[in-house]
Amino acid sequence: MAPLLQRAQQLAERRLPSLTRYRRAEKLPIELHRRRIYIVPTGFGLGFSVLLLVMLVGALNYANNAALLLTCLLGAASAASMLVAFRDLDGLRLGHIRAGHAVAGQPIELTLAFDSSRVRQAIRVELGRDTTAFAIDAGAVVHLKLMMPTTRRGWQSLTRLRVWSNWPLGLFRAWSWLHPEQAVLVWPRPEEAGPPPVAPAEDARHMRLLQGDELAALREYRVGDPQRHVAWKASARHDNLLVKDFERAQNRPQWQLDWRRLDGLDDESRISRLARWVNEAHAQQRHFSLWLPGNIIPNGSGPEHYAHCMNALAQLP
């Protein structure tokens, strides 16, 4: 019965313009009102209606006042449930949407903020195949997390959201559509494997050894060693002077990721390779810079620098 109702709903949306007046994108916040909330009976509601009709015919046929009263009470309860289902959505407001990060082909997480001036129960939000239910108190804000599929890098518009409820008795389904005027930025998919970036020769100053603080070993004295590093007590037991050799840390070179050095690759292949290099540099906690056409990102490191570079790659034409 559920697939039949869904097909009937889709047919009604295609045939009746009043059901599709809100297909165009809207600016946030979006508030539901009586002109954009629609109600249809559920499968259980249709069966219950048939049952009430049979009860009504039997009560009238046999002049049974008790059965007639019961039928009227059940009919009034079903009508009241339709009003309650409508009021469960009326006045609900979508305040803002916050998007996470994802590469092309992976779902991106959306955080939706709903607020209401009164208590609401058993509301469901659908985005594609992802569905979540929530309840909200008066004056409260609820944050819902939904996953939206992505297909390509760059800006991707949000698809329509369906908000619906069949509370309290499941006899009627009230629903509405939300189409926020917002887009999310999808990062490019890095290539699976390839050559590492080459450190420029002029950057050899970053390869110099740094003096450590911890004693590593003793070695023979060499001309030029400072006298304060001479181990006098240990040298007294040997024929030659011994010098304290401290642990030395080698500074890794910074990576200069340059679009111009990837000759022979098409634009999308260059973007994929640079995305892989940015991921590797971030994973190894390296300092790196990124040169792109019309956008030069200076040397840096950390999550903000990583997100800045991935955003720049995602927005390339």
Automatic annotation (TrEMBL):
Q: Which UniProt keywords apply?
A: Membrane, Transmembrane, Transmembrane helix
**Ranges that cross the membrane:** 37-60, 66-86
Q: What protein is this chain from?
A: Uncharacterized protein
